[in-house]
Amino acid sequence: MVRLTGRPRARSTHRPDGLRAQRPYDRARRAREHRHRRTGLADRSVAGQVFMLQVVIVLLLVVSAVVAQVLQVRHDSTQEARNRSVAVAETFANAPGTVAALKTANPTAILQPSAEAARKTSKVDFIVVMNTDGIRYTHPKPDRIGKKFVGDIAPALAGHVVTEEIIGTIGPLVQAVVPVKGPGGKVVGLVSAGVTKANVGGTADQQLPLLLIAAGAALILATGGTALVSRRLQHQTHGLGPHEMTRMYEHHDAVLHAVREGVIIVSGEGRLLLANDEARQLLDLPENGEGRLVLDLGLDAEMTALLASARVATDEVHRVGGRLLAVNQRPTDLEGGPPGSVTTLRDSTELRALSGRAEVARERLNMLYDAGVGIGTSLDVTRTAEELAELAVPRFADFVTVDLYDAVLSGEEPQPGTELRRTAYSGVRDDAPLYPVGKQIQFVESAPQARSLDTGDAVVEPRLGEAPGWLTQDPERTAQVVEYGIHSLITVPLRAGALILGVVNFWRSDKPEPFDSEELALAEELVARAAVSIDNSRRYTREHGMAVTLQRSLLPRRLPEQTALDVAYRYLPAKAGVGGDWFDVLPLSGARVALVVGDVVGHGLHAAATMGRLRTAVLNFSALDLPPDELLGLLDELVGRIDQDETPDDSGAAVTGATCLYAIYDPVTLRCTVARAGHPPPALIRPDGTVEFPDVPAGPPLGLGGLPFETAELKLDEGSRLVLYTDGLVEDRERDIDVGLEMLRTALTRAGDSPEDTCRAVLDSELSVRPSDDIALIVARTRALGADRIAEWRVPSDPSAVADMRASVTRQLTHWGLDELTFTTELILSELVTNAIRYGNDPVRVRLLRDRTLICEVYDGSTTSPHLRYAAMTDEGGRGLFLVAQLSERWGTRYTPAGKVIWAEQAL
């Protein structure tokens, strides 16, 4: 290419100086002859340089290999000397008799002959035996015996092997020092063996002639091969004939002028040396432009400055006439060539226009794709509307507002004609005078939003300042909007089937062009995709609200009054959906209280409804005063029947499953009886603050059937806190239940003394940051019914003892200040004690409890339960229990392992 720069353009027939230009074929012939004369010398010169360079490289490689081999041999010899020294020293140190010789009065007499014999046999230069102070006993030179050993013996005295290179008494050497260990591993002496450097290097010196011979042979072979390659290269260069060179030149010339890209070559002085046909057409160069200065070609100032500067340019776009040219320019002297530059020109006018339209289309497709994956990520109506507004700003509009009917926000179907509420707003700035979020809006009939809601079609207002229908909506505010710079509007209804949920407004301010028809179509597509997500969120909101309402209605709204426990509770729903967690506090007879917590498998309306059925069942079963294991057995049968009723005919799989924990606390005995069915164990906080998880037998979940439930009886001191919870508190997809239980232990350890503080500490911990399931939590602090509020008597099996019993009860009531209850209490106890003596078994006991009510309890050893009868006028009996029922607030029977208890409560 450089050789062609001085050639005039083929189509120019006159030179600037008036002389006739040479014809193209003459110039080509002269160039071919000139190249032919220079080819041999140039090729031979290049071949010679290649030959010398290869020889130098081969020589350097051979020398490097020889040096590396020599160094490697010396290193290997030194390493071999170290290994041999260690082996010889260890062998002599461990030889039989060495330790015994060191203990004699003259070790040298015994060890010197042995050391010299071993030295000659092992081909080392010395073997020295010394005591622990380093005094030699042996040495190849007898005059060195008795003198201090030269070397480091401290590591050997510590029981280690030492190898080192030092200058000893016989010169530079490699030596090893090993310990001689006596019985018990104690070091009793040292042995050193070594080889002098002269012997170490002898091996390398012996191999050096062989290495030099091999290196010389390699150098000769490599030089011969290099000479052959250079000769072949020279031969190939001379083999290229004139015809082939001419053909290469003509092809080059044809390509240069036929290519659809302009090529310009400028010399270092700023003269135009070459311009092909495409460059002449793109720049409108004069016919006689070649050879002239670039400054004289009449180009515009920007292009002239670029061509004259010879600077590097990459895909720079310059306007020349009515064209946009992509310009690339590189200097020609970067690799040692002549000064100047080569410039290529490409017409990108049409390509730029097509690229712009393609870029717009691609951006719109990307935005639609982002709308598909970015709108509707949550089932929240407001958040979905915000996602639409955030997506469209600033990619499509400068401001976006979303207005929805209030009914849509609550999950209901919208009612046309009602007010809308601004639900979402997003903009490039926050100070736009548009209606704020939360504002209720009633659009006038002439407003584009009202027309859009009425017809269901999108409306575009290209110039808001000239839109009287929009200006009449709120004259003061609309004037502020126009003055702010918002000049164009697209309003699109949010349609989901036959429902119109609201309207979306796209506002433009920064871009001066108004919205056009293509942008209207894009806005409709965006809103159509968002409308589906908003309607899904609306439906979910309605169903979720129904489920939450059902669930809340099934949970206890307030705790019953009782004095046995101080109770606090929390219910935390999951982030999505409703579950079947429930809890209850149930007062029982005898001042006892039952605590129950359970969890139905699954989420949604079905789980909430099943939870309500189970809670009602537990409430009814608790009225029977059953032990926890029996109650769970009945509940298990109920869940099994629910499964059978709700399992489809074509499927044998159960649709219900639940877990439950039931506990009964007695403030008189301070004992708590607990049973659980597949539920997490309770936590217990002792009065001193220690936390434990009592060992309560884990029964199967409810509904499996066939397996019994077991109970555990806990002795609780007054002030203890019993913590019941559902598995949503301790189980999570990202952590194991053991980790959750340990986290719960940590939270309970840091909790305060009251149940409220305990609930707060648990929910403030990391356990409830993002619950994936519902959480039900109960914390109950135990109280004791004092001995001064309890009275108990043993009753003989004699009807005459009833009178004494009445007298004792009367005295106790007088002591408690309850004289007004004496008459009714005597009647109740007379009937209950008489029945126990007449129909029951021994022993018979009477107990009075003064709690929130006066509780009368009669114990006997029979399991026969009395039944309330309604006696006729002529019957002589059957009215006793009727009187008890009329005189008391509640009465009933509960069974114990030793019999039964008939109880009655009277209001204080």
UniProtKB/TrEMBL annotation:
Ranges for domain PPM-type phosphatase: 562-782
Coiled coil: none
Hydrolase keyword on record: yes
UniProt-annotated stretches for the region Disordered: 1-40
Bias (Basic and acidic residues) ranges: 14-28
Membrane topology: Multi-pass membrane protein
Keyword annotations: Cell membrane, Hydrolase, Membrane, Transmembrane, Transmembrane helix
Domain PAS: 250-315
InterPro entries (alphabetical): Bact_Sigma-Reg (IPR052016), GAF (IPR003018), GAF-like_dom_sf (IPR029016), HATPase_C_sf (IPR036890), HATPase_dom (IPR003594), PAS (IPR000014), PPM-type-like_dom_sf (IPR036457), PPM-type_phosphatase-like_dom (IPR001932)
Major site of localization recorded for this protein: membrane
Name of the protein described by the UniProt record: SpoIIE family protein phosphatase
Organism whose genome encodes this protein: Streptomyces hokutonensis
